[in-house]
Design goal:
The chain has about 450 residues and is mainly α. It is about 80% helix and about 0% strand. The radius of gyration is 22 Å and the shape is globular. The two termini are about 40 Å apart.
Length: about 450
């Protein structure tokens, strides 16, 4: 019975979000309350479970995602993202420009939410395609595949950060493993697949194509642009392992431990960005703070989705459903990593949202993960994250963003964008399985 209720709950979630177009947070709460009641929980217990789920899931995640949004806004508004792209294109040259674009997309994608990153790089794609006379999608796909990979695999992006939080995974290790797995996914889905799209002829709107560019003389320097964009990665990957090498009760050990906290690393990155990309370049404090306020507004809906998913996950746990499913799945002769990927992939295809797919999957497979003593939770984060990117189609906002900006037919969008996302997903799983055999 718990398995049937879980399946019905997921179907109800798909129906509410994809068919009725109901707000995702409200949909999560409705399904959570209903599942709790039909599972035999008392009304006060359901309320308590939802409060616990929301509070436990958000925690310091509010800080990580909030600071991440602020950092991304400053990198975008200051022109640092454009400076990074211009420099990498110059390094790689025209012959290898696709590889430069893929690397630029990845570097830009680390601090920027996907939609914000997309809006930032599209004018660059239009400009490069026009100036080099290269087929537009062979230029676009390398960059956008890298953005997608960063969005699905890497903290501090909302979905992987939230999944890592719920699974108890170390965010620093998740980031390191994620970068390793990202490399083949970006190479295959980006420059290699992109090269096959020469015959597509998108016709973007002329108003989008002729976007006025900020003069290069007004852009931040290359060094500061790279430093600010990559600072969260540097702090997480350096200070995380370093804290284990120092005495915990020493002054230096305490400082390193504090900086190694993901939320503190993000705060430091934001403060550096405020100065280096704002105040130092003559921006008034009021204008910089206004950008941060706008960034927080964009992060609020994402936090509500994560909160709703946390409520549903807690209902799964407190009703005994997760334990039942975990015991049942433990007898299945299938790698937990493959199972987590497959469940996320199915939900993604049904619902459209990578974030919803990833966070819903956690509640289902959490007890199975806890019973697997040799399984690294960081790899499960990546398996679920890659599964959540599977076959984006008509129910995904990213699909329509790509279709409308490049003015493609639905058929051609599926042949290009949807296939690219599927490659990212499958190669991500293969990368996780390969890494699991090594580490």
């Amino acid at each position: 019975m718990p398995l049937v209720l879980t399946l019905l709950g997921i179907l109800a979630l798909v129906f509410l979000i994809a068919y009725l177009k109901l707000d995702t947070f409200i949909s999560f709460l409705l399904v959570a309350v209903t599942l709790g009641l039909v599972s035999g929980m008392e009304v006060p217990a359901v309320g308590k479970s939802i409060q616990t789920g929301i509070g436990g899931t958000l925690g310091d995640l509010v800080l990580i995602i909030g600071f991440g949004a602020m950092l991304g806004r400053l990198v975008a508004e200051s022109g640092a993202a454009r400076r990074i792209t211009n420099l990498l294109i110059g390094w790689f040259g025209l012959k290898n420009i696709r590889w430069g674009l893929a690397l630029a997309g990845f570097v830009i994608g680390i601090p920027l939410f996907y939609n914000a990153g997309f809006i930032i790089v599209v004018p660059l794609i239009f400009t490069i395609a026009a100036s080099t006379r290269m087929p537009m999608l062979t230029v676009a796909v390398p960059m956008l595949s890298a953005l997608s990979v960063a969005h699905g695999y890497l903290p501090p992006h909302p979905s992987p950060a939230a999944i890592a939080n719920q699974l108890g995974a170390d965010i620093g290790k998740t980031l390191i493993y994620g970068i390793i797995v990202s490399i083949p996914a970006i190479i295959i889905a980006g420059p290699i697949f992109g090269k096959t799209l020469r015959n597509f002829d998108p016709k973007p709107d002329k108003e989008l194509f002729n976007i006025r560019e900020v003069p290069d003389t007004n852009l931040p320097g290359a060094g500061v642009s790279f430093l600010v964009a990559l600072l969260p990665v540097i702090l997480l990957t350096v200070f995380g392992p370093l804290k284990a090498q120092l005495p915990a009760d020493s002054f230096l050990g305490k400082v390193v431990t504090l900086i190694a906290e993901p939320y503190m690393g993000m705060l430091i990155s934001v403060l550096v960005a405020v100065y280096a990309l704002g105040l130092r370049r003559g921006e008034p404090m009021k204008a910089v703070m206004k950008q941060l306020e706008e960034a927080v507004k964009t992060a609020a809906p994402i936090l509500l989705v994560i909160a709703g998913a946390g409520a549903l996950k807690q209902i799964f746990t407190d009703s005994g459903t997760s334990k039942y499913i975990g015991e049942m799945l433990s007898g299945v002769d299938l790698s937990p990593l493959v199972m987590g990927w497959a469940i996320a992939a199915v939900i993604r295809v049904c619902v459209g949202s990578a974030t919803v797919a990833g966070l819903t999957t956690v509640g289902i497979v959490l007890p199975l993960i806890q019973s697997q003593t040799g399984l690294k939770p960081e790899l499960m984060v990546l398996a679920i994250g890659s599964g959540s990117l599977m076959f984006s189609h008509l129910n995904d906002g990213g699909f329509w963003l790509f279709k409308e900006y490049f003015n493609l037919s639905i058929k051609d969008t599926i042949k290009t964008w949807s296939v690219m996302e599927s490659i990212v997903s499958v190669v991500g799983l293969l990368g996780v399985l390969a890494l699991n055999a090594i580490v």
